[in-house]
Write a structure and sequence with these properties.
single chain; about 260 residues; alpha+beta; D-Maltodextrin-Binding Protein, domain 2; five-stranded mixed β-sheet; about 30% helix; binds D-MYO-inositol-1-phosphate; IMPase; metal-binding; magnesium
């Protein structure tokens, strides 16, 4: 559905900001995924991007919960920039159990199962193992806020990593696919303020199973609802990045 719609005309609306986009395809894909899963698992709960945008509460209980981003990279999708994915994570007792992320145009399926490894189209994934920030390729995403204070912090965080001599900082327009690049060893670290639990749930399992680290930007344990993350191929790298960052406050998914 997404591949076909990518090159067609779209009806685009905005959500929290002029850069936070949604199309009818986001809704269509989300409804389809939820209705298929609900038929098979009627007692399970759902947290999904477009339902949340329409006011559904994002509360992760102990019940089995599917955490869904129907199109990650909606802005790319709107512009026909072919870096878009579907992301589905699954948690039980607030523990992330497995995740699947599908790169729609390159037809790459990333999967991770707690204790069972991470794979891309059946090939095992391993992070790079890099510990040295001055040898790192770092990925980030801009996030939806564009007010001057937020932009200043965003750019200054990027500047701090470049001052620390990171080889490069990339923004590809899809948090989940950027995190998959980290899992596959094509990048060494990722950080972001302003992403959501549906951007992180599946990718977290995939990165951990590929040998990587996913933590909060404070350097403490990941808080799935805190709208911020540092992920890296090693704990050393994650801590160096966490220490370099200034916080951008996006609130919490479970308080919206
Ligand atoms: C967004 C994208 C974007 C990132 C945002 C995400 P969406 O997801 O991954 O690159 O900056 O934080 O929420 O809205 O395209 O599903």
């Amino acid at each position: 559905i997404i591949r076909k719609a990518l090159t067609e005309e779209k009806r685009v609306s905005t959500k929290t900001s002029a850069a936070d986009l949604v199309t009818e395809t986001d809704h269509l894909v989300e409804d389809l995924i939820i209705s298929e899963l609900r038929e098979r698992f009627p007692s399970h709960r759902f947290i999904a991007e477009e339902a949340a945008a329409s006011g559904a509460k994002c509360v992760l209980t102990h019940n089995p919960t599917w955490i869904i981003d129907p199109i990650d990279g909606t802005c790319n999708f709107v512009h026909r920039f072919p870096t878009v994915a579907v992301s589905i994570g699954f948690a039980v007792r607030q523990e992330l159990e497995f995740g699947v992320i599908y790169h729609c145009t390159e037809e790459r399926l990333y999967t991770g199962r707690r204790g069972g490894g991470a794979f891309c189209n059946g090939q095992r994934l391993r992070v790079s193992g890099e510990t040295d920030l001055s040898k790192a390729l770092v990925l980030t995403e801009i996030g939806p806020k564009r007010d001057p204070a937020t932009l200043k912090l965003f750019l200054s965080n990027m500047e701090r990593l470049l001052h620390a001599k990171a080889h490069g900082v990339r923004v590809i327009g899809s948090s989940t696919l950027a995190l998959c690049h980290l899992a596959s060893g094509a990048a060494d670290a990722y950080y972001q303020f302003g992403l959501h639990c549906w951007d992180l749930a599946a990718a977290t399992v995939i990165i951990r199973e590929a040998g990587g680290i996913v933590i909060d930007t404070s350097g403490g344990p990941l808080d799935l609802m805190a709208c911020r993350v540092v992920a890296a191929s090693t704990r050393e790298m994650a801590m160096l990045i966490a220490q370099a960052l200034q916080t951008i406050n996006y609130g919490r998914d479970d308080e919206k």
